[in-house]
Amino acid sequence: MINFTRIAKAEFEKVLAESIEYQNSDVLAASEVIKNMALISFTRSAKSSSLYFSLSHVLSTSIVGLHILNAMRCRDGLVRPAQIINLMASVLFCNIGVIRGILNEDNGDHQKIDNEKPRFIDQSFTDSSLWPYKSFRSTKFIQEISFLDSSINYELVSRAIEYSDFFGKAPDPSADAGEIAKYVRAIQVITLMSDQNYERKLVEFYLSAKEANLINSTVFKDLADFRQKWVQYFWERLYPVVGEEIMLLRETTEGRNIVSQMYSHL
């Protein structure tokens, strides 16, 4: 039987070694923390039934996150261990809340979606149906795992998780959102737009958003309309969010490849 979690972990650690791992002792220690975080995230994400928020997606976003960190190092000369840990924790866990059963209070068809008692969630839908609640559930998950909660700056990471959802009901980015929050949101956009199977991922994104009742029918009538209008939507609504990070990625060869792949889809 194929162990997809092990494959994802090996791929992640390969990129980690090439990007930030071979630096000073403090960064090496941060890398070990990230490896453990990745294992937790990949193990849980392998259980996701969501078309879009899958193990493959969290691996892709985490790899883009590592390339962002490498570009930051090339631009600034160094990346602080706290930056590394808080950014990667935000990327690895910002979407984990869509997965049923990950919280202590989840019980069968009743899931914890707010500060009230767990509520009934129809099991006939995939985990994408929990998309509107994933920010709350993701931050709650971090609080329930002592290793995660003690390794991060919870205020920074929770804010980044809240801002990461560029299509749901997260607040619009603002000047006071913070550097990490802006990076995490941009990473989510760049990962979708640069995916090697972009057309398929766009369909998965649409179907997942529709299942979560996040598609504005006055903007996108159906899947065909969504695919036709998406590029215009990107330039008008999303590019202002990712422009700075696209320029940052151009600091490295790997980053330029990501940007080239992204523009080839536009």
Describe the structure.
The chain is an all-alpha fold and 266 residues long. Helix content is 64%, strand content 2%. The chain contains eleven helices and two strands, in the order ααααββααααααα. It has a two-stranded antiparallel ribbon with strand order 1-2. A hairpin with a 7-residue loop joins strand 1 and strand 2. Helix 2 packs parallel to helix 4 and helix 3 runs antiparallel to helix 4. The radius of gyration is 18 Å and the shape is globular. The chain starts with a helix and ends with a helix. The mean pLDDT is 91.
Describe the secondary structure blueprint for this structure.
Elements: H1 4-21, H2 25-45, H3 55-76, H4 81-93, E1 110-111, E2 119-120, H5 134-144, H6 146-151, H7 154-163, H8 179-194, H9 198-211, H10 223-249, H11 253-264
Antiparallel strand pairs: 1-2
Short description:
64% of the residues lie in helices and 2% in strands.
Number of helices: 11
Give the strand order, joined by hyphens, for the main sheet: 1-2
Morphology call: globular
**String of helices and strands:** HHHHEEHHHHHHH
Features:
266 residues, mainly alpha, two-stranded antiparallel sheet, 11 helices, 2 strands, globular
